[in-house]
Amino acid sequence: MCSLCHAHRPWGAQRRGLLIALGAAGAVPALALAQVDVGQGSSLRNLVPAEQLEAAAAQQYAQLMAQARQQGALAPESDPRLQRLRVVSTRLIAQTPRWNERARQWQWEVNLIHSKEINAFCMPGGKIAVFTGILDQLKLTEDETAMVLGHEMAHAVREHARARIAKTQGTGAALSIGAALLGLGNIGDVAANLGTQLLTLRFSRQDEIDADLVGLELAARAGFNPDASIALWQKMGEVQGQGGGPAFLSTHPTGPDRMARLQQNVPRVRALYEQAQGKPGMPAPPAPGPTQAIPATVER
């Protein structure tokens, strides 16, 4: 997700590392009738091949899930919270191609990790993990959960990691690794880099603004109440005020600017939410409230 965890935390340290694979250029995703104004994004992402970055992220995600399973931290398929997360995610995923056509090809995965950390992430290629701490401590409603997931999916569909890698590595690294991939260098060294090189990514303030707004629209189009975005960050602010949630809030600071920006954009997407509620086969999302919170306790 957004470089959420500190290096001394085992899950965060591994999650934040994304394997780098530079070479061929890819197309910048086009916007499709977006209601929020975020622009096209950085063209520097073209220095990083999307297919190889997504493949590397998928490999790392599989390793993380395998470790979670070994430690008994991976929620089983029968976990009702995991099932609910997947239902919410399915509705959101259906909206992602509007922002990135490549999302149609992604093999999306959604998993739940038992941890007290307030955390969630979506890696390039649609690999999602949510920590039970964010569900339990914030007592998220379904709509608020959709806002968290939408924000994380937005980082992936807007390819923020791809752009950040290009910016942090620079064109020199892109050209040198790209040349090797084309047979102009030591292929063995490149293969080793693809298998072992990790980057610690921290999304920029602009990336976070982008993810807030794109995530808001994704959720509204999927039929989730956009007002929940305000409620979510109010809860985040309360946790921050209590000195909790350092992993998530270190890269997702609350504050009047963030709240004001969301409040300004909720009216822009409200019609999308109302339209989604009226679509055949689209269940009307429940109004935010404690009765709609995802259950805090499940049998493991």
Question: What does this protein structure show overall?
Answer:
- The protein is mainly α.
- It has one domain (10-25, 44-281).
- 52% of the residues lie in helices and 7% in strands.
- A three-stranded mixed beta sheet has the order 2-4-3, with helices on both faces. Strands 1-5 form a two-stranded antiparallel ribbon.
- Helix 5 packs across helix 9, helix 8 runs parallel beside helix 11 and helix 9 (228-241) runs antiparallel to helix 11 (256-277).
- The radius of gyration is 19 Å and the shape is globular.
- It starts with 9 loop residues before the first helix and ends in a 23-residue tail after the last helix.
- Mean pLDDT is 74; it is low at 3-32, 171-199, 244-250 and 284-300.
Could you write a compact summary of the structure shown?
The protein contains eleven helices and five strands, in the order H-E-H-H-E-E-E-H-H-H-H-E-H-H-H-H.
Can you list the strand order of the major beta sheet? Answer: 2-4-3
Largest sheet: 3 strands, mixed
| Secondary-structure class | mainly alpha
User: Helical amount among residues, as a percent range?
Assistant: 40-55%
Q: Helix and strand string, N-terminal first?
A: HEHHEEEHHHHEHHHH
Strand content: 5-15%
> What is the gyration radius calculated from CA atoms?
19 Å
Oligomer designation: single chain
Contiguous uncertain segments of 5+ residues: 3-32, 171-199, 244-250, 284-300
- What is the 3D shape? globular
What does the average pLDDT come to?
74
> What's the β-strand tally?
5
